[in-house]
Specification:
Helices cover 31% and strands 22% of the residues. By secondary structure, the protein is α/β, with parallel strands linked by helices. It has a single domain, classed as 2-Layer Sandwich (Double Stranded RNA Binding Domain), CATH 3.30.160. Strands 1, 2, 3, 4, 5, 6, 7, 8 and 9 form a nine-stranded mixed sheet that branches. Strand 8 and strand 9 form a beta hairpin. Helix 2 packs parallel to helix 5 (200-216).
Length: 218
Amino acid sequence: MPSIVPLFSALVVAIALTGCASAPRVAYPGLPSATYLKAHEGSRGDRRPYAYQSDVRWSDYQRFVLEPVEIYPQPEAQFEKLSDADTRVISDHMFRAFGEALATRFEPTQQPGPRTLRVQLVLTGAKPTTRFLSTAMKFDLAGAPYNAVQSARGRPGALSGWLAYAVEIYDAQTNQLLAAYVETQYPNAMNIKASSGRLSAALTGADKGAEALMASLR
């Protein structure tokens, strides 16, 4: 009698192909920066669909104020099967990850002033990982090839979670918007560790998002 495991895995892959493994490309009209954001077709266009960049020299800034992470309250928010406690865990991790990354280049401060950036993070959505199944799909005969292709394309793995958020960067003294973007982050499709916990992919997404921010500030 043939095993049902390959059939089940093939079904999961089929479901993933219909959209369960895709990450959102959503404009958030409730963001303060919404009127500035435009479709972004650069090298990060898949993960960063909307962005704004003023004519700013980041080398002119020495310090940063990191505001508490806001939770996007509008209907466009995409929190899939997450409790308020889950959302707090993710937002707290975002604050730490981005704060630590910014501190590698700028001096943290709580006082707006000259040559100071004010950074606002807005958590707009997150999806938990389907535990056990997500990990198993990285080894299964049906799931492994799918995840390998997703990894090569830089896309989410089958049944993997993701993190969606916005970053708004202001001049702390003048409150001028310097840059903003909407971004989705997720672990590599073959990252086994990031599939081990329900929130692991979203938390890994925050870490990757912090790295992406610093790359943007070069």
